[in-house]
Amino acid sequence: MIRETKYSQQGFTLIELSIVLVIIGLLVGGVLVGQDLIKAAEVRATISQVEKFNTAVNTFRIKFNEIPGDMTQTNAGAFGLLQLTNAAPLGQGDGNGIIEGGAAGATIPEGETLAFWAHLSQATLIPGQFGTTGNSAITAATGITAAPVTIGGLSQSLPPTKLTPTQYFIVYSVSSTNYYQILPVSGITAAPAYSFGATGITPIAAYNIDSKVDDGNPNTGTVVARGIAAVNAAASWTAATTAANCMMSGTSNADVSDTYNRVPASGGNDPSCSLRFRFQ
């Protein structure tokens, strides 16, 4: 006699499916929370960098009675620091208290704008070694790098930010006021000039930094929004939330009523911003 074997298929119960969905939800939520925590830590670390730079500059001024980069050629040599020897000293270590790129008001990577980081690192006031090795070595007689600097050696000329590895700090002056700026620098050319990548920081990150350090407004205070294609360029702007724009509202990209474009789905997470910090 042939017996008929019965096979039964047993699926997940509603309770089991609910448990699986809860676990998936917790995993997804954990990943998102983790990403937010990482971003928040990067913002705090970048703010800390600016604070440490300000402290280092003030300590340098107390110790040497001048600011780094702008230190007179004679004093730099006397203290054993990088000595710019250009016969036309304006912007090449002239002691006027303004960080200039080899000429009055210049923002290019030449003279004081590069020597600034070299002096701070030589005085062991910031970590790293800047302007002394490889292509990044600053030529005393010209104030420019020994050769063009590519992304691979850029961290020997400029300090990278903690925000993203593609962003670097530069220094310069505008209207006799000294600034740091975060920019997506990709190299230093023979011109000399900075070359730039296309990826800045997001408006959301820019707002988070600005609101913690200053007033949270992109066009007022000690921290302001700037563009990413040139030093001290105007930030991209639109009247409404739009992708690839750093600011919105107001009537122009210089309106004090502008706000950072913080809508995640409409440009808030697009890397379209740079930030400029006034020396403190």
Please describe the topology of this protein.
Blueprint: H1 14-64, H2 73-78, H3 112-122, E1 168-174, E2 177-183, E3 185-189, E4 193-196, H4 203-213, E5 223-226, E6 237-238, E7 247-248, E8 259-260, E9 274-278
Parallel strand pairs: 6-7
Antiparallel strand pairs: 1-2, 2-9, 3-4, 5-9, 7-8
Helix pairs in contact: 1-4
Please write the string of helix (H) and strand (E) elements.
Answer: HHHEEEEHEEEEE
**Beta fraction of the residues?**
5-15%
Distance between the termini: 97 Å
Largest sheet: 4 strands, antiparallel
**Helix proportion range:** 25-40%
Structural class: alpha+beta
Q: Order the strands across the largest sheet as they lie in space.
A: 1-2-9-5
Give the overall silhouette: elongated
What is the overall pLDDT average? 91
Q: How many beta-strand elements?
A: 9
State Rg: 25 Å
Number of helices: 4
Low-confidence stretches: none
Report what the structure shows.
There is one protein chain. This protein is α+β, with helices and mostly antiparallel strands. It is built from 4 helices and 9 strands; from the N terminus they run H-H-H-E-E-E-E-H-E-E-E-E-E. It has a domain of 83 residues. It is 28% helix and 14% strand. A 4-stranded antiparallel beta sheet has the order 1-2-9-5. Strands 6-7-8 form a 3-stranded mixed beta sheet. A two-stranded antiparallel ribbon has the order 3-4. The N and C termini lie far apart (97 Å). The model has no long low-confidence stretch (mean pLDDT 91).
